[in-house]
Specification:
With about 475 residues, this protein is α/β, with parallel strands linked by helices.
Length: about 475
């Protein structure tokens, strides 16, 4: 007999990127928390930075929901497992509502809303538009009538008369309510951006002021009760039975991971599944630690912003030296994107060169434009410490850096079937006879469950047979 769970939920979508949906989602979460309502936050797609902001606003780890990487069943089970029944679950969409993988909008926010049967509120950037906004909303309704669009929030409204025309046009043409209208002056730009998008919350100069501003926007210009009613109208979701791996009674390997403002791109599931596989996790700061702990059995280096912290990283010579020695001594090291940059010989950014760990003898150059952005598919075809040959990997990449020069001597583990990777048609630099993997590909452990087991198994082999 099927079991169902009530999970009040709302998907905050936009007409495009930059419409204001992140600000609205953050303000909504903060307002609900202030009212004593339990909340959980989710981000459509593989984005780390928006998810970090959602974690800040909700006070809980935000979970990514990506149908391309994980599939509909895994998306549903993750949402049901981590959502709250006695509060509100807020899902932030990505880009425009129907923007997806291809011309059919596969894996879009609209598709996610249908999989999770989630009411949608659309944030419309109303700058320099009136009745045409109604045509845009109507187009979203007509493009796929199965998408449950239930309301509109106007952003960048230029005065009371502008709001009245927008509100009247949309409500009369589209037969759905406008549940908020944020004036242009109130919207502002409280979240500064740089080359990868928003800066992470760890680097924001004044989170207290930001939180106060967002609460005021929602309190003054958004019908919070209407949004809560939409969320609570969502139908119960079926609970998919699956076996959760029990937490091990003992954790037999120690896996360090770099965790600071330079390296912060970690999906919570990746760390959780490492623990489920028997790892004790040791957070380490590459900015302040004098050296790696001597008792590590493996190291995980996620992505982040090593370029903006390059001077501090380069100045920590004792730490970089310990990282290089650990690689030479055979410590299993799994590095993604920013981790690859740290393991390079040197990093060049804005005309300055910064010495890095010199584990790999190549340099990395940070460009003004993206060098790889989007989903990536790899086929493992070379022996390595973490994945058997023949393994297919789906992940994503978003990097402004590239390896220079594009030497073909570097050993790599994977053929790139889709995307850019490290070298032409290749990804995952490896060191022969060592245990190091450095890739531009970010993997999500729910999409690649063999990843956590591969890293913990490599750690156990290192304990049993250290490579010297």
């Amino acid at each position: 007999m099927s079991e169902f769970r009530t999970l009040p939920r709302l998907l905050v979508a936009g007409m495009s990127g930059g419409s204001g949906k992140t600000l609205l989602a953050l303000g909504l979460l903060l307002s609900l928390r202030r009212a004593g309502v339990p909340v959980r936050a989710f981000k459509k797609g593989p984005d780390y930075i928006d998810a970090a902001w959602l974690s800040w606003a909700s006070g809980q780890p935000a979970r990514n929901l990506d149908t391309y990487l994980m599939g509909a069943g895994t998306i549903l089970s993750s949402f049901v497992d981590h959502g709250v029944s006695d509060g509100i679950n807020v899902i932030e969409g990505a880009r425009g509502l129907y923007d997806g993988f291809d011309v059919n909008g596969s894996h879009s926010s609209a598709v996610l809303s249908k999989h999770l049967r989630t009411p949608v509120v659309i944030v419309v950037n109303a700058a320099k538009v009136t009745r045409t906004a109604a045509a845009q909303v109507l187009g979203c309704q007509k493009l796929d009538p199965e998408v449950p669009i239930q309301g509109v929030i106007l952003n960048n409204v230029n005065g009371r008369r502008h709001e009245q025309i927008l509100r009247g046009s949309i409500e009369s043409v589209c037969s759905i309510p406008v549940v908020g209208a944020i004036p242009k002056a109130a919207a502002g730009h409280p979240l500064p951006e740089r080359h990868l998008g928003l800066i992470p919350p760890e680097e924001h100069s004044d989170l207290e002021d930001l939180g106060r501003d967002l609460l005021q926007v929602v309190g003054d210009f958004i019908d919070l009760d209407a949004l809560v009613a939409m969320a609570r109208s969502a139908a119960p979701l079926e609970v998919i039975s699956h076996e959760n791996a029990p937490m091990p009674r003992t954790r037999d390997v120690k896996i360090g991971y770099l965790k600071d403002s330079a390296f912060s791109f970690y999906y919570p599931e990746n760390l959780e599944l490492l623990e489920q596989a028997g790892a004790e996790l040791i957070p380490i700061s590459a900015l302040s630690a004098a050296a790696l702990p001597g008792d590590l059995n493996a190291l995980y280096i996620g992505g982040g912003f090593p370029e903006t912290h390059a001077a501090a990283l380069s100045a920590n010579r004792t730490f970089l030296g310990s990282l290089r020695r650990a690689a030479e001594e055979g410590l299993p090291i799994y590095a993604e994107c920013g981790g690859l940059m740290l393991l390079s010989r040197a990093l060049t950014w804005k005309g300055a060169r910064y010495e890095m760990a010199d584990v790999f003898p190549f340099k990395v150059e940070v460009s003004e434009t993206a060098q790889g952005h989007g989903y990536i598919e790899l086929q493992v075809d070379t022996p390595n410490p973490f994945f058997p040959a023949g393994t297919s990997l789906r992940g994503h990449e978003f990097h402004y850096s590239r390896i220079v020069p594009q030497s073909d001597w570097t050993a790599t583990a994977c053929e790139v079937r889709r995307g850019t990777g490290c070298f032409k048609g290749r990804d995952a630099a490896i060191l022969k006879n060592k245990n190091v993997w450095a890739s531009y590909t970010h993997l999500h452990a729910l999409a690649t469950p063999q990843w956590a087991q591969g890293l913990t198994d490599a750690a156990r082999r290192f304990v049993a047979h250290p490579v010297l």
